[in-house]
Amino acid sequence: MMKTVVIDDEVRALSLVVDYVNKAPSLVLVASFQNAIEALEYLNHNRVDLLLLDIQMPDITGLELLASLQHKPLVIFTTAYPEYAVEGFQLDAIDYLVKPIMFPRFLKAVNKALNQVQLLQQTPQVFPVTTEPNVTLSNESDYIFVKVETRWERVQLSQITYIQACGDYVAIHSLKNKKILTLQTLTQIMNRLAGNDFIRVHRSYIINLPHVDVINKDYLMIDGIDITISKSYRQEFFEMLDELSQ
Q1: Does position 109 have pLDDT exceeding 70, yes or no?
Q2: Domain 2-122 sits in which CATH superfamily?
Q3: Is the model's pTM score more than 0.90?
Q4: Which of 52, 162, 206, 213 has its CA 20 to 30 A from that of 92?
Q5: If you write DSSP's letter for every residue of 125-168 in order, what string do you get?
């Protein structure tokens, strides 16, 4: 069961989403708020799994609330304004629901959150170490060691297809559907990757260029997975492509 909090300043919208949460067998409602400031105080002192968060609210927006959290739960944005969706995804939102929200669409978004949780559960968990980094680079710079529980596991750089931010963790995706989860930020792990093949294309993604199958204006594909090329990384990405093609 995913511990869920609902935040919306509109009474009817809040009641509707709370009702949907109570109907979803995989969710348990732990709190609901009309006041975003009170919700922020609660979230700073309580760990939850899923946040259903309105974007347009007085005092503090949903985007600002999420960005201010030290420990971010999975989040599904609810909004009457679809134009906010891009900003929501840049904050690693699982999905966004446009009001009026229908129950089947709500369940689809919840299933995305459940799939994310299953990814974290299926991938070996990594625990932080205070005396040494979770990822180290070899002298030859052709592989990294990633700490998994009490052991170090070697990952060949050439085998990595893409790297994805998953909350406080980073999922390293490799060939043969192998995934390793490490307690790092994308910036930290990017600093330990050698060569020009690894390129950051999104707040949540680093890709290994030799494994890219298709590149479009605003997305690319690796092994059938669509990865967005965000606006903030787009120019640098295509400039690098131009340099490599010369």
Answers
A1: yes
A2: Response regulator (3.40.50.2300)
A3: no
A4: 213
A5: P----SSS-SEEE-TTSSEEEEEETTEEEEEEGGGEEEEEEETT
